[in-house]
Amino acid sequence: MKSNLFSAGSPGRLLPIQGSNVAFVPNLMPPKLDLGDLNPKIESAALAIGELKGIGRLMRDSQVLVGPLINREAVFSSRIEGTIASAEQLALFDAETDDTKTEPTVREVGNYSRALRFGLERLQDLPVSQRLIRELHSELMRGVRGDDKRPGEFRTRQNWIGRNPATPIDEARFVPPPATELPRLLADWESYANKRGAYPAVVDLALLHYQFEAIHPFADGNGRVGRLLLPLTMAQWGLMPQPLLHLSPYFEGRYSDYADLMLAVSQKGQWPEWISFVLDAIAAQANEALSTSQYLLDLRDDYLSRVQTARSSALLPRLVEFLFTHPALTIPRARQVLGVSYRGAQLNVEKLVSAGIVRELKMDNGRRFFLASEIIDVTQGRTERRAIAERHGQTDSASSRLR
């Protein structure tokens, strides 16, 4: 790492390591900031969060929104790390009873989704803390690439960030603090995450995310764990109790800015630029999630209308609701959800096929899956959602009832 790129404004110090190399040790939190120029963006981000939070309060079952948005976050956060899997593959992974048969990249994305759900459950008993961070890492790395790098344990050796895994430390883009500095830095991070209050919550999110990435406490998986902590921290603070807001899609689409702006904080103390970027991400993704949520609610109402008017079983609405958290079905899974015989489950799933709600996929091994493609498509982009709306005789304004 080139020490001459770090100026006097850097919010940390360079510590000599391994010969002539240096590592960056960030200062304890919080930094001293002047937020005057950022106030309009702070207000916009807070307003967008408030609107999205209101949708969650109106929902009798927020999982209709939560499940698809978590899966989208898993796809995009993993994509930042170069792990590519589609939302359809993720849905099939979720429905697969033997995930050892699943492609490794899909398992990695699936682990992210499962780790986020795990973290949300753990928040009932455990605050955002070093213990929770270790548990998240363990869930994330279970049975996938990197599971040989002490899952659930903070690193004991020096790591660094380069162009690729083979980049030597003297050519590293960034070298985090030595392992001996981790206890002090992580204790400070944990304390601030739970006490905070120095700045508005949306600013503190940006500060905490930067600090975690600068500490880089694991041998692998730091970026994904750092992004997992964003919705969990928002939930703990009550900022977004239900995980409807996820920032990875924004970060992935602007990855160079995401990485460069964090590095610029370390090298030059350019906090306003980094915080502004995160505030833009919050506002954009909150508005995107609001739109996505409205389409998902319309789609759910459409599906319920279809199954209620087709001389269908009274069990079908239960399957429809289930699809919004698990958009791929098998007959055995439908049997478990409905508590009926195999034949009864098969008949109900076939009615979903006839209603155009799911489509059948036959795998090479003979297994049959039933995929709710529209639910997946709704979360993937504005173009797909508009096409779905038009197909059902809706318009963008038709969904404005929740604004």
What does this structure look like?
This protein is mainly alpha-helical and 403 residues long. The chain folds into two domains: 287 residues, Orthogonal Bundle (Fic-like fold); 108 residues, Arc Repressor Mutant, subunit A. The chain contains 16 helices and five strands. The strands form two sheets. Strands 3-5-4 form a three-stranded antiparallel beta sheet. The longest helix is centred in the last third of the chain and has 38 residues.
Short structural description:
With 403 residues, the protein is mostly helical.
List the strand order in the largest sheet: 3-5-4
Number of strands: 5
Which stretches are low in confidence, meaning pLDDT under 50 for 5 or more residues running? 382-403
Largest sheet: 3 strands, antiparallel
Element order, helices and strands? EEHHHHHHHHHHHHEHHEEHH
Distance between the amino and carboxyl termini: 49 Å
Rounded mean pLDDT score: 88
CATH class of the largest domain: Mainly Alpha
Strand content: 5-15%
Shape: globular
CATH topology of the largest domain: Fic-like fold
